[in-house]
Amino acid sequence: MADPPLPPLPREILYEIKRNGAYMRVCAICADTGIEAVMVGPASIGLFSLKQNAARKLAYVIEKRRQEMRR
User: Fold this and answer.
1) What is the reported pTM?
2) How far apart are CA 44 and CA 27, in angstroms?
3) Number of domains in the chain
4) Is residue 41 part of a domain?
5) I want to staple 31 with a disulfide (CB 3.0 to 4.6 A). Which of 12, 18, 20, 21 is the partner?
6) Residue 7, in any domain of the structure
7) What is the pLDDT of residues 8-26, one digit of tens each?
């Protein structure tokens, strides 16, 4: 079975990045709605990967909230 398509990313995403030892916490915030999603992972995988995953999680959270509002 194929994976469902990913929801589109928001137009503008703000990032808050904090490092705590070997781990990084990346918070992705939608500039339009203020909705945020947080990813925590090892700093060794790189900031780009953590930001990309946080942005995808943010898109998922936004889409999930839209679906809940339709009910």
Assistant:
1) 0.85
2) 17
3) 1
4) yes
5) 12
6) no
7) 888 899 999 999 999 999 9
